[in-house]
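Repro:
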Amino acid sequence: MKVIQSEKNQWIKRMRVLEKRKYRLAFEQFVAEGRRFVEEAIHSNVMVHVILIAEGSEHKYDDLLKDFDGPAFLVEPDILEESMDVVTPQDIAAIVSFPDWSEESWKVMNTVVIADGVQDPGNLGSIIRSTLASGADALFCLKGTVDFSNKKVLRSTMGTILRLPVYMIEDADEVTQVLKKYGFHFYVADADGVDYDEALSGELPERIALVVGNEGNGVTQIEEYDQMVRIPLEKDVESLNVGVATGILLYEMRRRRNEKKAGK
């Protein structure tokens, strides 16, 4: 493999401009860092434009590169580290296109999560992983929610972002109407709601959109809903982290649906 020795190389320049949201959106690309993430990208249906490996580490990735037929380069370690701009940089990265998730699949989904103004990257990353792990179908990010291609979000998803449809939504009313047309019932997570043991009792709707809100202000963009649900907490505890709360509610829905299928 050829060795990149200059910061003016086109791929190094592209990595650095992708630090900024406006360029990620303009190019519809982001940087995947680390073996696990790059491997996910190679084996997914996204476009991997290039793989960059720190010079001296190439032997670690012989098996990975056998599955990749695109361009790959070695990079002087200092240049690659500076381009990643983290305390503990990885020794491999790839420039990857945004996944192309079709809206046609909405009509066959059963459980989706709607993030309303979730601003913390770590929280959104947790929500993405919980959504995928619980068997839910997609995540809709309303206006004000941190960009899913934010580097901190990507790191916290550990590559799972490539396996879960994530939609950035500007018009909350429009997506609400579309999901309602497909038969979704809206369950809003809120501290003033009904305890989930009661709210999720009985037979759950076939299709549920779980709405979780901003860390400080809660849900503000979804005005019409079917049920408001809360997680009961011990006294003196005001609230749960939104990522944790999302996981609890998704798994509780999953458990009850599985029990129903099993005839319990």
